[in-house]
Structures are given as C-alpha cells and as structure tokens.
UniProtKB/TrEMBL annotation:
This is BROMI middle region domain-containing protein. It comes from Cervus elaphus hippelaphus. InterPro entries: BROMI_M. Pfam families: BROMI. Residues 2-184 form the BROMI middle region domain. It comes from the Eukaryota.
Amino acid sequence: AAPNCSETALIHIAHILARIASVEEGLTLLLYGENMNSSEEKSPTGAHLIAQFSKKLLDEDISIFSGSEMFPVVKGAFTSVCRQIYSTCEGLQVLIPYSLHESIAKAWKKTSLLSERIPTPVEGSDSVSLVSQESQNIMAWEENLLDDLLNFAATPKGLLLLQRTGAINECVTFMFNQYAKKLQ
C-alpha cells in the first residue's frame, strides 16, 4: 500500500474487485490471469495479490491505516473479495496457501475479546453514545468476520478448514441467530 493511498479509494477498489469476482469470467481472470495456457514467465495473478494484501490487512502487517476508524472497513472490503474467490472449489484451491481462514479466525478472536472488554455505559454520562457507537462497530466487525468464516463452508474443503479454526460452533450459532432474525 502506498502511503498516500486513501482508505476510501481502497474500499472502492475492493468493491470493484468483488464485482469482478462475482461473475464467472471475472473470477477466472482473477484466478488465472489473461493467458491461462501461456507458458511465459509466471507473475502472480490477481487472486494471489488480493489474498496477500488481505492477509496483511487481517494480520495487521500494514501499519499505514492501523489507527484509523476506517481500517476495519478496508479489511472487510478486501476480505469480501477473497470470500467471492474462496466460495468456489477452484478459488479455495488457489487461496489455501495463504491460510486466510486462520487469519480471519485470529482477527475474530481478537475482536471477540475486545467486545467483551467494552465497559457498560453509565446513564447520564457523556460517554454513553461514544461507547455504544464503539461497541456497535466492534460487534458489526465481529459478525462480519464470523460471516466470512462461515462462508468457507461453501465447499467441502472449506468446511474442513473452518472446522480447523475452532470457530465452527460460533459460526453455527451466528448462522442460527441470523436465521432467527429473518423469521421475525
């Protein structure tokens, strides 16, 4: 990431990449590049670059945005691009070496611990709205990460990877709660 690149621009880029990955031709382009049968020198395809960047974001190896309020949004946007890719058997096979399931699970565990530490707001305090906004943001990010993990279950191999993260029970509970909300 370039130091002068804005979070908003990265979010827009991620949305465009997610749209590309959502159609078969776009996914093929991201997975294999333009020349699928070319024997030329191999450079990393779009899927590899997106996975590398997303992993760095999730592992917080990129310090440029670390203090920003938009950092979870940037992480979520690029994770959703990876989600488009790993929801297919071919895409998952390409992304397995990056262990995104482990990075997402690690980020979820960290966020889960943060959500438990948020103090209960005291009535009449000025910090009530600040604390509730912060807790809503953390809970939304936690749910987003659980949803990302749950989407590994789209393929048999992905389900195995999800099971290895140790978060499968939480994902099932999350899925049940989402289903219960829809029924209401």
